[in-house]
Each structure stands twice: as structure tokens, then as C-alpha cells.
Amino acid sequence: MITHYDIKMEMQKLKEVLSVEGVNIPSLLQVIKPGTYVFLWILLWPTFLRLVSVKSDVRDVGFDICASVMMGFLLFVAITNGMMLYLAIPDSFRKDSK
């Protein structure tokens, strides 16, 4: 179980590691790759399902694609932001942390 004390100690260690080693700057491809996979899955799966369905209206297909693009883009931004923050922490701290 993680307690408040554990979090406080981890934050102190992180503060020390960041002051000594600094922040890592990950490559762009490493940061956006997971978000891109999720975005493409959210875009292509409903598009595929709508295009193979027997009864499909062009307007409905367009709405589904637009909704998928908006939702996929929001998830892409959130995942990319999370990966950027995670990969900015030095490897030594990530390996030694609880």
C-alpha cells in the first residue's frame, strides 16, 4: 500500500534527481507513437465497420468519421502529454521508484 509518507519521500528523491541530472527530452517519435496508434484505431475501426455494413447512409458515415476524429484527437493529445511527462523523468529514477 502506498502511503502519504511514501509519496512524500519519492517526491524528495525526484527533486534531488532532477536537480542533479536534469530533465530528459525524449524524441518526438517516442512520444507520439502510442497516441498515434490509439488515434488510428479509433478512426479506422468505426470507419471500417460503417463501410462494410449493408445499410449505410453517407451522412451517417460522415458523422461517425467526424466524431471518431474528434474523440481520437482528444485521446491523442492526452496520451502524448502523459508520455511526454513520463519520459521526461530520468531513467534511473523510474527504475528505482516504487
From TrEMBL:
Q: Which organism is it from?
A: Escherichia coli
Which residue ranges does UniProt annotate as crossing the membrane? Answer: 36-53, 65-89
Q: What is this protein called?
A: Conjugal transfer protein TraS
Q: Which domain of life is it from?
A: Bacteria
Q: What is the lineage of its organism?
A: Bacteria, Pseudomonadati, Pseudomonadota, Gammaproteobacteria, Enterobacterales
Q: Enumerate the UniProt keywords alphabetically.
A: Membrane, Transmembrane, Transmembrane helix
